[in-house]
Structure formats: structure tokens, C-alpha cells
Design brief:
This protein is mainly alpha-helical. Helices cover 50% and strands 9% of the residues. It is elongated.
């Protein structure tokens, strides 16, 4: 393998450092790549240097999988008896005779003796050969199975955000257990402790990530993809210090005025403040979703035909200014991430900004304003998509309000916003 070169930065990448492994020319055709890259997850060069060695080892393992048979394939190819020499004493003479016998320990030793993770893979190979079972699944295989289970159950694939959480959870679990079947309760306790005390993530993010880890293992056990019989995450109590609804706050009057005086993205902020749209709902709209003075929110291919909840399907009333802004700017050709970066840059300009003031705070602000101007709660729930999924009363079952009523009520919010920024 090539010599270690130290952390590198991508030519057109962000601030983080990377480990880069150059694929030898003889192996490039089989690998399909000339270089393998792995983010070190930090912009600190000192920390990047400490993480570099482990990242290079992971890249070498990745290259080994690309150019050679996986360990699971090798196990399948080496099932059955092997020849061993048996010492026989006959008439005072020592003879050696070759005998074919099933020796899973010998096969496991041969297949794993050159691997850095031999202590982990050797018992898994022995177990697979003794029980005539398939070799333990990898983290990637478990992830694919979990994605299929979710797609079958919910009728849609994992969203990009959910996939990110799954991959992030796998990245940490892999450091404690090379294969899912090796994950133990003690590992889960250590992982939980790491997330709570060292990761620096918000409680809501931690619960989301660990929740994905737990349900992925649960799916593997339920469908007998994993050999373990109990979920090692079950004994771990996830404690949330901050409730999700307390994670964000509304904009103050002064912050809204300051934002509109500084930003070049007035048309975007104006629509977000007046509609309670989520950023994904906003970005995925196009001109076909404008119906007179209403904006139709429905699943689109741009967001992989998904919305956050069933109640997110709705019609949102616009005023003349918001309608004009949307007609001039839709559709957004760039990615949602690009749009979010623009808006986050605006938020950075606010001296009063804290971690609870985010793009999503426009929804909280709209809700606050809707109460202030006297919009009935059931009408505001209809506009922002918080209407009830299950009705318990006859009066709750009407659910859908005529456009004229929604326009009339939301005009109170539009007027409040116009007065604020005029």
C-alpha cells in the first residue's frame, strides 16, 4: 500500500481535512477509482493528524473489498472438508496420512490470519461454518436491509436526512464493533456516553441518531439478518434534556426589521415569514403549484415524493406581493443546501442570533403572529399543516376550509408583516 502522506484538503471542498489513499495503477481498473477519499470531520489540522491513521486503515479495507472477494464470499467458497495430515504409528514406524475432514477452525484461521480485525472476524467465520449459516452481514448490508424495510413499511425510501443520520450512527458503531453482530450492550453504553459528553450535538440530534441505530438493529433481528437475539440498545435509556419544541425560538420584532434591512433575499424571507413553509416545502415548489392566490403544498419528485407528514398536504394563501415574488423566483434551480447556505449567511448578520434562531424559526414566528392577530387555532393549523390526523369530535372532521376563509385570515399575518418591515 502507498506510504502515508498526511491529511489533505479537497481542491474544491470545504474547510474539513481528508485522508486520501492512492489506488495502485495495477488495481485501478478493478477498483473503478484512482483515489479513495474519507473526511476526517474536522478543520483542525492537529486533530486531523490524530484521526488520519485510522481513516487510512479504513480506506485500505475499502480498497481490499473493491479489488478482492469479500470475507463473506471467501467463506462460501471454502465450505466443506479440508485435507489435514494425521500421524499414524504402525509396526513401530511413524506414517502421515492425509485425511479430509471438516475443520472450521482451520479454515477460519487461514481466511483471517492476515486481517487486522482477526480477533473479531475469526469467531464469526467459525460460527458461520459450524452452523452452515451465511457469514455475518456488514454494516452496509444491514443499512440496505433497513432501507428496504422502511420503504416497504412506509411506501418510500429513506430521505437524505434520514440516510445521513443512519450513516453517522454506523460510523460511530463501527469503531466499537466491526460487524453488527459484534455490537454489545457495553458498546452501546460507551457510544451513548460519547454522544452525550463529547459529540457536541444537540439532544434532539442525538436522539434522532441513536433512534436510527436502535431501529436498524431491531429490523435486522426481526428479519433474522443478524444472529443476535436481543437488541443491545434496549437497556440504554435515551434521556432528552431539551424538548424538540423548545429547540427553536421566534424572531423578535427588531430581528425581523434588521433582517429585512440587510438581506438581498427579501423575496425568500417574505414568503417564509408569511406562509409557515418549511424550507424543503419552499424549495421544492414550482410554478405549477400556484393556483390563483393559493400555493399548493404536495409531494414532488424534487423531494423524492415525500413530505414530513400526511397533514403537510395543504393550500396556503398568498397576498399579492408574495405571489409576485414566487412567480419571479420559482423554481429554484440550485440545491436546497445552496438555498439554506444563503439564508444562514443572512442570519449570521444578526448580532442577537443564537443557536435557537434558525431558518425554521420562521414557522414559529408565523405561529406566534397568527395568535397575536387572532386567527383561530384550527384555521392556523390548517395553514401550517398541524391539523389533526385523527378526529375525535364531529366538529373536528370538517378539516378543509374554503380558500376565501384562509385568504381572509392569513391576510392578517401579511398585514402584520408589512407593517413591521415598512
Amino acid at each position: 500500500m502507498p506510504k502515508l502522506r498526511g491529511p489533505r484538503k479537497r481542491p474544491k471542498g470545504g474547510p474539513n481535512w481528508y485522508a486520501c489513499l492512492t489506488v495502485p495503477k495495477a488495481l485501478r481498473q478493478r477498483a473503478g477509482k484512482s483515489e479513495l477519499w474519507r473526511s476526517l470531520g474536522t478543520s483542525d489540522p492537529t486533530l486531523a493528524t490524530k484521526l488520519y491513521g485510522a481513516a487510512i486503515e479504513a480506506l485500505e479495507a475499502q480498497l481490499e473489498n473493491l479489488v478482492g472477494d469479500s470475507l463473506a464470499e471467501q467463506v462460501e467458497l471454502n465450505r466443506g472438508p479440508v485435507l489435514t495430515a494425521v500421524r499414524v504409528v504402525k509396526e513401530g514406524q511413524t506414517l502421515f496420512k492425509e485425511v479430509a475432514e471438516v475443520d472450521p477452525h482451520l479454515v477460519a484461521h487461514v481466511l483471517t490470519q492476515t486481517r487486522k480485525d482477526q480477533s473479531e472476524t475469526y469467531p464469526l467465520v467459525v460460527e458461520a461454518l459450524k452452523g452452515n449459516k451465511r457469514f455475518a452481514v456488514t454494516w452496509e448490508e444491514l443499512r440496505e436491509h433497513y432501507a428496504k424495510v422502511r420503504a416497504t413499511k412506509k411506501g418510500q425510501t429513506l430521505s437524505s436526512s434520514a440516510l445521513f443520520e443512519v450513516n453517522s450512527a454506523i460510523k460511530v458503531m463501527r469503531q466499537y464493533a466491526g460487524y453488527p453482530d459484534l455490537l454489545a450492550v457495553k458498546h452501546c453504553r460507551d457510544i451513548y456516553s460519547y454522544f452525550i459528553n463529547e459529540s457536541g450535538l444537540k439532544p434532539r440530534t442525538i436522539m434522532s441518531r441513536l433512534g436510527m441505530a436502535k431501529t436498524m438493529i431491531k429490523a435486522g433481528i426481526k428479519h433474522e439478518v443478524l444472529s443476535m437475539t436481543s437488541n443491545p440498545w434496549d437497556p440504554i435509556d435515551f434521556i432528552v434534556d431539551t424538548r424538540p419544541e423548545d429547540s427553536y425560538r421566534s424572531f423578535t420584532k427588531e430581528e425581523v426589521q434588521k433582517l429585512f434591512s440587510l438581506t438581498e433575499n427579501v423575496h425568500i424571507w417574505y414568503v417564509l415569514f408569511g406562509t409557515a413553509l418549511r424550507i424543503g416545502e419552499f424549495w421544492s415548489r414550482d410554478l405549477s403549484h400556484l393556483d390563483g392566490q393559493m400555493l399548493v403544498v404536495t409531494a414532488t419528485a424534487r423531494q423524492k415524493n415525500r413530505l414530513k407528514t400526511d397533514t403537510s398536504n395543504r393550500r396556503i394563501p398568498l397576498n399579492e406581493k408574495a405571489l409576485r415574488y414566487l412567480q419571479e423566483s420559482l423554481p429554484f434551480e440550485k440545491s436546497k443546501d445552496t438555498l439554506q447556505r444563503r439564508l444562514r449567511a443572512d442570519l449570521q448578520s444578526l448580532e442577537s442570533r443564537d443557536e435557537k434562531l434558525v431558518i425554521h424559526s420562521t414557522r414559529h414566528t408565523w405561529k406566534t403572529w397568527s395568535r397575536r392577530v387572532g386567527i383561530p387555532i384550527d384555521v392556523s393549523d390548517e395553514i401550517d399543516g398541524h391539523k389533526k390526523k385523527i378526529t375525535t369530535d364531529v366538529s373536528d372532521g370538517y378539516g378543509i376550509y374554503p380558500d376565501e376563509l384562509l385568504i381572509e385570515q392569513n391576510n392578517k399575518v401579511w398585514q402584520f408583516l408589512d407593517d413591521l418591515i415598512s
